[in-house]
Amino acid sequence: MTARKMVMTDLLKAEDIKKALDAFAGETFDPKKFFEMIGMKAMTAENVKKVFQVLDVDGSGFIEEEELKFVLKGFSKDGRDLTDGETKAFLTAADKDGDGKIGIDEFEALVHE
């Protein structure tokens, strides 16, 4: 029997995710504020890395720009797509080594910044 893939609600409260998604429904997405609202800032580094693994759809070990656009869908199927501007701003905020993608340690650092 294979272990089922972890889902976001294994790690975070659905109501916190919904509140945060609603807050950014009509305004510019701010990843740091979003992560704080859903309770990730208070999580251990290990659990933040589990969230990263759920968001890393292709299992490459990185969240690339094309995955980042749909990052809110990783938290909830009701999440909206990020605009190109929001996607680029998120990437710029997290991509400390400038390789054009977000690694697991860069993600954890952004959450706990």
Structure description:
The chain is mainly alpha-helical and 113 residues long. It has one domain (14-112): EF-hand (Recoverin, domain 1, Orthogonal Bundle). It contains seven helices and two strands; from the N terminus they run H-H-H-E-H-H-H-E-H. The chain has helices at residues 14-23, 31-37, 45-55, 65-68, 71-75, 84-94, 104-111; strands spanning 62-64, 101-103. The chain has a two-stranded antiparallel ribbon. The longest helix has 11 residues, at 45-55. The protein is globular and about 35 Å long. The relative contact order is 0.18. The model has no long low-confidence stretch (mean pLDDT 94).
Describe, in short, the structure shown:
The protein has helices at 14-23, 31-37, 45-55, 65-68, 71-75, 84-94, 104-111, and strands spanning 62-64, 101-103. The chain has 113 residues and is mostly helical.
Summarize the helices and strands and which ones pair or pack.
Blueprint: H1 14-23, H2 31-37, H3 45-55, E1 62-64, H4 65-68, H5 71-75, H6 84-94, E2 101-103, H7 104-111
Antiparallel strand pairs: 1-2
Helix pairs in contact: 3-7
* Structural class label: mainly alpha
Give the tally of β-strands. Answer: 2
Q: Which spans of ≥5 residues are poorly predicted at pLDDT below 50?
A: none
The main pleated sheet reads as: 2 strands, antiparallel
